[in-house]
Amino acid sequence: MLPALAPTNTKDMFHTVEDILQPTEARERFRKHFLAAPVEEEGQKWSELWDNRDFLPWDKGVASPALVDLLATKQDHEFFVAHDNQTGKKKRALVPGCGRGYDVLLLAEHGYDTVGVDISATAIVDAKAWVDVQLDKMEASGVAVPKGKIELVAGDFFNNDWIESLGIEVQGGFDIIYDYAFLVALNPSLRTKVAARMAQLLAPQTGLLVALEYPLFRPSSTGGPPHGIKSEDYEQLFGKKFEKKMHYKPDRTHKVGEGSDMVSVWKRQPAKMQAPLEN
Ligand SMILES: C[S@@+](CC[C@H](N)C(=O)[O-])C[C@H]1O[C@@H](n2cnc3c(N)ncnc32)[C@H](O)[C@@H]1O
Q1: Does ligand 1 come within 6 angstroms of the Cβ of 115?
Q2: Is residue 46 lining ligand 1, measured as CB closer than 6 Å?
Q3: Using an 8 Å Cβ cutoff, are 150 and 108 in contact?
Q4: Rounded to an integer, what distance in angstroms lies between the CA atom of residue 224 and that of residue 182?
């Protein structure tokens, strides 16, 4: 297990459901930050928060406990083996909206060559610094360094430039995507586009989407980010192009989602079973 990075903004952090549902000072500040921004400027609004570095209420400082536990069971699920059984080639993972990269390092520790992308260049600078510190600590304490390669890149999830700059195929270039607080960070009007993009990036037939469903406790009428979502919404977004392989309530998750978070695991359907891609 990695040592926790103490978040810099513990006072403002969204620790509990109440911190998100009640109009606390931090909640109001966060809500207002995005309130008047047109959808196409929301990326810029995230970047402003990262650039100021003093108000990052979503930043937990650690990898998702639910993903830690899921990957610990990978021997029970053939599709989580981090290499191709026939060729031995390592699989490639993607964490969209990776922030400081906690989940990126976790996936690399499990053997995936892992890419973290964030629209904020500052987030990526911070992520690289955090990962470097963790790698030094691991080496110094004799903990095995990650088997997977780590690549952290600034870019817009919807654009191809960052993928091409890494020499990765846009169509089906990734074997696994982990979504925590990315789908719901974006304006709900973009959800269909996010789902279509994830389907495009994942390897047909084998690609896996692991979604930490959050915040299920939040009515969508209360705004965001994070924007409220329901398990049925995941079904609607992914059910046509993916086959649902797992759906469960994790024993452990970030405190704010305890008791409500769900994990779903979706596998890309064979081409003949797919509905046509929107967008
Ligand atoms: C709620 S944060 C979650 C960060 C990270 N997953 C974590 O758990 O700490 C959402 C992240 O998505 C990033 N983001 C927003 N729009 C993006 C886009 N279009 N492409 C890539 N990243 C984006 C933001 O900069 C922010 O870091």
Answers
A1: no
A2: yes
A3: yes
A4: 12
